Amino acid sequence: MQSTEEVISPDFLRRLAAVAARETLPRFRLPGAVVNKIAGGFDPVTEADRETEKALRALIRSEYPDHGILGEEFGNEGADAGLVWVIDPIDGTRSFISGIPLWGTLVGLTRDGDAVAGMMAQPFIGELFYATGNGAYYEGQHGQTRLATSATKNLADATLFTTTPAIFEADRRASYDRLEKQVRLARYGTDCYAYCMLAAGQIDCVVEAGLYPYDIVALIPIIEQAGGVVTDWDGGPAENGGGIVAAANSSLHAQIMAFLHGD
């Protein structure tokens, strides 16, 4: 079996990030049409989402024609292949349309369903977080550094992020509220950026619900290869999305799971 490094290189992730920057930056903080994808709620999509995904798909197809692609805006393309790219062209579209630079482009790679490589690119800030099987890395204002999660072992010392407590259904909201009372600091928002801050050791845990594969696949290798743990709410693989529990280490993850499940 090929190693992940033989399948994908950091340079290819940089090329994907450059494509994302080319498509998103000219459209950021400029007037543009926003389309709501759902009735009875608000799930925005913009020209930037669609054009970015089109461009990313084109580059992946040209480089890896035998690989599958799953994207938020244009669905499955050969998704039964052993190697499948998973794309969220703008994770944090609500931030994007609000002019807040905490959105990011997510591109992950799965092998037989397991997330093995991924990147989060934030072109406005000029940062790239990625993992290809040989550790997780940051490139940006501080040069290139290897990422490592924090050594925080106790919930009482931890910083917790979620998009908003409003994402949780009633039963899980109660569990989340119980968890939040245990941590030192809880903050909301930042979408994919929170997971990268977890990998970078800046925060300690992220708990969310209602995610899709394209929201999390790219982030799993970054966190795991930085030393963290990512599962669903039942402790299983996170690649299919749903409820997500990400923590800096196994000890902290176990404490979070205990509080979420009332143990």
TrEMBL record:
CDD domains: Bacterial_IMPase_like_1. Mg(2+) 2 binds at residue 90. One of its GO terms (biological process) is signal transduction. Keywords: Amino-acid biosynthesis, Histidine biosynthesis, Hydrolase, Magnesium, Metal-binding. The gene is hisN. InterPro entries: His_9_proposed, Inositol_monoP_metal-BS, Inositol_monophosphatase-like. Its cofactor is Mg(2+). The keyword Hydrolase applies. It holds the Pfam family Inositol_P. It comes from the Bacteria. Transmembrane segments: none annotated. The keyword Transcription does not apply. It comes from Agrobacterium leguminum. It catalyses: L-histidinol phosphate + H2O = L-histidinol + phosphate. This is Histidinol-phosphatase. Pathway: Amino-acid biosynthesis; L-histidine biosynthesis; L-histidine from 5-phospho-alpha-D-ribose 1-diphosphate: step 8/9. Mg(2+) 1 binds at residues 72, 88, 91, 215. The lineage of its organism: Bacteria, Pseudomonadati, Pseudomonadota, Alphaproteobacteria, Hyphomicrobiales. GO terms for molecular function: histidinol-phosphatase activity; inositol monophosphate 1-phosphatase activity; metal ion binding. Its EC number is 3.1.3.15. Belongs to the inositol monophosphatase superfamily.
